[in-house]
Specification:
Number of strands: 11
Largest sheet: 11 strands, mixed
Distance between the termini: 70 Å
Strand content: 15-25%
CATH class of the domain at 111-290 and 378-411: Alpha Beta
Radius of gyration: 32 Å
CATH superfamily of the domain at 111-290 and 378-411: Brix domain
Helix content: 25-40%
CATH architecture of the domain at 111-290 and 378-411: 3-Layer(aba) Sandwich
Number of helices: 10
């Protein structure tokens, strides 16, 4: 009992001393490492940390509110001093280790690099001497998920033909493709009914690359609105981002040989290979053009109120039509029912036409110009590629010469990047 009483007294004294220190000691700022480690008092240190956290939160709220108001008024938020989210943050890309093979994208190509690219295996494609003709196949006994992915690949990549594997080896398939003037062979692999890899072999001279394929999401899983479709007849626009080294440039050129050089912009399709930390993200988009009529919180409220009024009027009309339908069904008049169905369809088509015309018109500014917004709708598929090896020539697993081969010990540091 005596010990407990002594401990209580000691605690009381410690709390009183801490209060005195807080009242007498001036407010301490942060050190160079943005911490409060130099503050010895634990209670005071935690209070300073909480105060700093609240200040940061309020600052973020002000920036978000300012950006939102500026966007609604059609102004530039950054010009008004409201930076983007994450501006000024230090990323892994900024801390990447130096690589001697990095090519400066802002200046003209070095003579050596330009000569190498003029005489490499991809030069016939970029000189418009050949057109892409791709043979697509799989490993043995593909699953249904694999076939769904292949269907979408055939839609995305123009002039692609699927052939069954039929128990043939890759060397036999390559010889078969060469005789039929194919310019590329793509082999999609899977493990335990899950797509996990892709071989890309340029014909007739190579090179051959193997990519690990992860995070696959099919377009049929992404398309909520079925009106968004893939216009497979039109050649897509190809975007290759952030391939900055000699190896990365070579991989980008190989991926580019799968698509025609002349994109059809009327098809409004765009295919992107975005390299970030040696992961190549594949995305497939469709351009959408909309009038900038329904922007801002106030106009959203108007839209919601208008839609509620329309729903109410539609419900009343539906009730009247249901009553009439019941009377007609009593008379068993099939012709009358058909007429009513046609009238319903006409009403729906008229409403849809009016809505589309409103979207196309949009707002008109003071000078009489129409304000139209361009957007991107992702239509899939979506997946991520990771280069495992790049080999000279066509597929030869035993005697082939490797330009690059990934090993677990070659990329221990996240700051070391090869592409």
């Amino acid at each position: 009992m005596v010990k407990k009483a002594v401990k209580k007294e000691q605690r009381k004294l410690a709390i009183e001393l801490a209060k005195k220190r807080r009242n007498t000691k001036p407010a301490c700022g942060k050190q160079e490492d943005n911490s409060f480690k130099h503050v010895k008092d634990k209670i005071m240190r935690s209070e300073l940390h909480d105060k700093d956290k609240r200040a940061k939160k309020l600052k973020k709220q002000k920036i978000r509110k300012g950006r939102k108001e500026a966007e609604e008024n059609g102004e530039d938020p950054e010009a008004l001093g409201f930076p983007k989210k994450g501006a000024g943050a230090v990323t892994v890309d900024m801390m990447r280790e130096e690589n001697e093979t990095i090519i400066d994208q802002t200046t003209a190509l070095d003579e050596e690099i330009a000569n190498d690219e003029e005489n490499d295996e991809f030069s016939p494609h970029f000189n418009f001497e050949t057109e892409p003709k791709i043979m697509l196949t799989t490993n043995l006994k593909p699953s249904t998920k694999m076939f769904d992915f292949l269907k979408e690949l055939v839609e995305v990549i123009p002039n692609t033909k699927y052939y069954k594997r039929k128990g043939l080896s890759l060397k036999q398939i390559i010889e078969y493709a060469k005789k039929r003037d194919f310019t590329m062979l793509m082999v999609v692999t899977e493990n335990k009914k899950k797509v996990n890899g892709m071989y890309i072999c340029n014909l007739p001279e190579g090179p051959t690359a193997f990519f690990k394929l992860t995070k696959l999401k099919l377009g049929q899983e992404m398309r909520r609105n079925q009106s968004t479709y893939c216009n497979s007849d039109a050649n897509p626009e190809l975007l290759l981002n952030n391939f900055s080294t000699r190896l990365g440039r070579r991989v980008a050129r190989q991926l580019a040989t799968a698509f025609p050089q002349k994109p059809d912009f009327n098809g409004r399709r765009s295919v992107t290979f975005h390299n970030q930390r040696d992961f190549i993200f594949f995305r497939h988009y469709r351009y959408e053009f909309k009038g900038s009529k329904r922007t801002g919180a106030k106009q959203k409220k108007k839209k919601d109120s208008d839609s509620e009024d329309e729903e109410g009027s539609d419900d009343d009309m539906d009730e009247d039509e249901d009553m009439n339908d019941s009377e007609d069904s009593d008379l068993d008049d099939a012709a009358a029912l058909r007429k009513k169905a046609l009238e319903k369809r006409k009403k729906k088509s008229k409403k849809a036409g009016e809505a589309n015309s409103e979207d196309e018109d949009g707002y008109v500014n003071d000078s009489g110009e129409k304000l139209v917004r361009a957007g991107l709708k992702e239509i899939g598929p979506r997946f991520t590629l990771k280069l495992r090896y790049l080999q000279n020539g066509t597929f030869d697993s035993k005697n082939g010469e490797y330009e690059y081969q990934w090993r677990p010990d070659s990329q221990v540091s996240r700051k070391k990047m090869f592409l």
